[in-house]
Amino acid sequence: MALKVELKPGERFILGESVITNGNHRSQIFIEGDAPVLREKDILTPDTADTPCKKVYLAIQLMYLSPDPEPMLQQYYQLAEDVRTAAPSTGPYIERMNNRILTGALYKALKEAKALIAYEVELLDHAQRSPGLSPDGEDNE
């Protein structure tokens, strides 16, 4: 079954190793095959990966888009472990991402990483509202 992608005017996406840019009108394309597909709204760059969890997402993104994800794996594991050490409550997110990566489901690992980023935002918001607590909810006093 083909993947249907609906594009806004000027919207870009990555297909395999290519960047595709839509023209001036809305359009639909159908993609058959196993090439990685990533919409513009889901793409992070090194400049926009400005938090620990976004760096984890970027590592998974690079693995997903690469024909050989193996070289990026160690960096991913180090970043993920750094996040888990700083905020132990992220453990379930990390475990789900690890399981997806180990089974080769890198796109699903990206979805898990998006959930981790949303959780990171919650932790940081909570930490800003509660100055006596660490980002993981532990009492610092």
Order of helices and strands: EEEEEHHHH
Number of helices: 4
Strand order of the largest sheet: 3-2-5
Structural class based on helices, strands and sheet pairing: alpha+beta
- What average pLDDT do the residues reach? 91
How does the SSE layout of this entry go?
Layout: E1 3-7, E2 12-15, E3 18-21, E4 27-31, E5 37-39, H1 52-65, H2 70-86, H3 91-102, H4 106-129
Antiparallel strand pairs: 1-4, 2-3, 2-5
Helix pairs in contact: 1-2, 1-4, 3-4
Overview of the structural elements:
The protein has 141 residues and is an alpha+beta fold. The protein has two domains: 3-41, no CATH class; 44-129. Helix content is 48%, strand content 15%. It has four helices and five strands. It has a three-stranded antiparallel beta sheet with strand order 3-2-5, with no helix packed on it. A two-stranded antiparallel ribbon has the order 1-4. The longest helix is centred in the C-terminal third of the chain and has 24 residues, at 106-129. The protein starts with a strand and ends in a 12-residue tail after the last helix.
